[in-house]
Amino acid sequence: MTVITPHASHWGAYDAIVEHGRVVGVRPFARDPVPGPLIESVPDVVHAACRIDRAYVRRGWLEGKRAGHLRGGDPFIPIPADQVTRLIAAEVSRVRAEHGHDAIFGGSYGWSSAGRFHHARGQLHRFLGLGGGYTAQMNSYSYAAGQALLPHVLGTNEVLLGRVTDWAAIARHAGVMLCLGGLPLKNGQVTSGGAGASEYSVNFRKAAEAGVRFLCVSPYLADMPEWMHAEWTPIRPGTDAALLLAMAYWLIAEGREDRDFLTSHCTGWDRLAAYVTGASDGLPKTPDWAAPITGISAERIIAIARAISDAPAMLTATWSIQRADFGEQPFWMLTALAAMLGGIGKPGQGVAFGYGSINGMGTPRREIPSFSLPATRNPTGRYISVSSITRMLESPGGVESFNGREVPFPDTRMIWWAGGNPFHHHQDLNRLLRAWAKTDTIIVQEPWWTAVARHADIVLPATTSLERNDIASSGRDRFLRAMHQAIPPIAGARNDHDWLADIADELGYRDRFTEQRNENAWLRHLFDRWRRACAATGVETPDFDRFWADGYWEAPPPEPCRAFTQFAEFALDPVAHPLDTPSGKIELFSETVAGFGYAEAPGHPVWNTPREWLGAPEARRFPFHLLSFQPSTRLHGQLDPGRVAMADKIQGREPIIMHPEDAAAHGLAACDILRVFNDRGACLAGLRLNEGLLRGVVMMATGAWFDPLEPGVPGSLCVHGNANVLTADVGTSRLGQGPSAQSCLVAVERFEGALPPVRVHAPPVIEEAM
Length: 770
Ligand SMILES: Nc1nc2c(c(=O)[nH]1)N[C@H]1C(S)=C(S)[C@@H](COP(=O)(O)OP(=O)(O)OC[C@H]3O[C@@H](n4cnc5c(=O)[nH]c(N)nc54)[C@H](O)[C@@H]3O)O[C@H]1N2
Ligand SMILES: Nc1nc2c(c(=O)[nH]1)N[C@H]1C(S)=C(S)[C@@H](COP(=O)(O)OP(=O)(O)OC[C@H]3O[C@@H](n4cnc5c(=O)[nH]c(N)nc54)[C@H](O)[C@@H]3O)O[C@H]1N2
Ligand SMILES: [Mo]
Fold this sequence. Notes:
By secondary structure, the chain is α/β, with parallel strands linked by helices.
């Protein structure tokens, strides 16, 4: 018998086709105009051999090999569910009593699933918050540098996260759009919280058809869909701030800056102008100055500056550009350039980030409250910047400067992760592996034997979203999607909520955690809350039973005549509608930021020579700039064992993209297996040639599961191709302390000898009993 049930995921909405308790196929949600290909991998991963079937404890942990012992090499021993909840409860009580609540690191960064009730991270935060608290993580790996910076400059992070000027306004009013990092099609396959409609490329197409001229500045030609006929300017990675400063120089030299706007709507223009012209530091930031830095000719720099000042311009950058050394600076300077053009808040003009980073940015829609599990307070109030985990573990009791504060590092005795994978997302995994060893106990909730589960002490098997009921919702999509349970839980998998409820029971607060609701009661409760919020904004919604039976609800479309431009009221009247900055204006010089006293992030945007880039002396030893970009074949590490990602690999290894002439110069040929290395680590990768890549740059997608030849040994070769054994773990600056994965130099050589097998898609070594 075949059963078809509505479902949703970060990689798209679909109906699951179920036969005899197995998901055998999927078909895209009928209302999705451009269904993504990633849903094809769903049946493979749900029933993958690397699903975790029972709870496990690391043998060494049971033997007392805890703080000071490297994780990842020991066998796992199965443990019954009731025993493991008691074991965890006892360890949580010990850590809280002996070391305090902040000794539990519960940041648990990660995307979890699209379902908003069974959101693993949200559930864990609720559990830890109600239990007394934990140390949290502030901001996101995606755009931490931008999150710290932009409130100082524009008074909001909406320009980074949404609601941004929509594509209806761009198509109607912009003449030209400058896209740093392009508008890569593959990024639109994904929406956090899941989307019913993938309108990413639909938006681009409408703007292109409306005649908007697209300028793409990026090392990689494929960052722009071919059919948009964009003009491509390859740029050396990490040098966008220099390019933008030189464009500003030319605008000033030509008298093209909008002096009225710079006076009425901005503060600090004189300080920035003095830096651009060299009046303050003796170094004019001319196109000739920027040419050798960026690899773009002075004529081309001027042509781009001319293009954006000759026509109404929208300026954008992908989030990737700020995940690099001093990543705050290109975002600040792009904002400054938009201010110089006087476009901020004018219809379809100005600046916003991420149109090319995720589905839903700038999709015209009515603002509807999103459906969510309300956040729980963290009573300790303790946090670190999102990517400071290794530094925190390395220096208990230390402090780190972050956005004007001195953030203390706790003495971490327990790490708990649910719904995220630091052995996917964090930089310099060998350094993380050493720091990770310093803690007593590591608990991981995971459906699969991912690298983080393999580096845990206690592993709890989690259901996938197909094994439970939930509701998907995103602030960037107009659909609310029912996620019906399609199959029973696989083997011993349990819902994260149920694991935590049982542990809360041992600790004496089950009822506070569950509020005495089961799954169904929670979904109805959260739905009613959401329904009331919708009603308050004048939007009518069906009741729960109607919604659940329909499988989805669609918000009313925006009025076709309306187009949304961010900062429009401010543009019309900056006095009546000031920004939420100290001056109420756009801060081209920020007294607040200057007051932090960070030399690398002064009061206005600057060019800093990156730590790692093709202009560095180390480029003689490590001649390639590695960009570890988002994968087209999966979401981060999720879906890696599925057919879409597997079909893309070369002899089972993650591809590395290189210009054919670079390959020839190194004696390499397509499909060779390469050893990619630097002083931090090494991995294997399969060579793929591409003429549309700047020479000297190589690209590897993130997300191939970390598979060290010798698990638990720092520096061991990753045989599968996880780029994070190569990336550096350095904050973007003291201002943002964001991850800087994109600033990374590597060398390559052909891998000779027998190819070691990829073992990470099968379970680790398991011992049935002690
Ligand atoms: N080098 C480099 N590194 C990067 C980046 C880069 O550009 N370059 N990008 C960074 C960015 S922007 C991001 S957002 C991060 C992404 O980093 P993560 O969000 O940590 O990556 P995911 O693989 O999505 O991790 C989610 C994990 O949750 C698990 N999971 C899914 N559903 C459930 C569930 O219901 N319950 C439980 N318990 N677990 C579940 C999945 O199996 C998976 O292991 O990576 C960052 N790392
Ligand atoms: N299919 C798929 N889509 C995804 C994700 C996924 O895992 N899979 N992850 C989602 C998440 S969590 C996030 S945060 C977003 C991230 O979205 P982004 O950060 O925008 O994505 P990236 O692929 O890292 O980078 C986009 C492009 O930027 C270019 N680039 C890199 N460095 C530079 C530079 O210095 N200068 C210039 N001008 N260009 C540069 C690269 O050529 C790269 O292809 O993607 C989301 N979308
Ligand atoms: Mo992200």
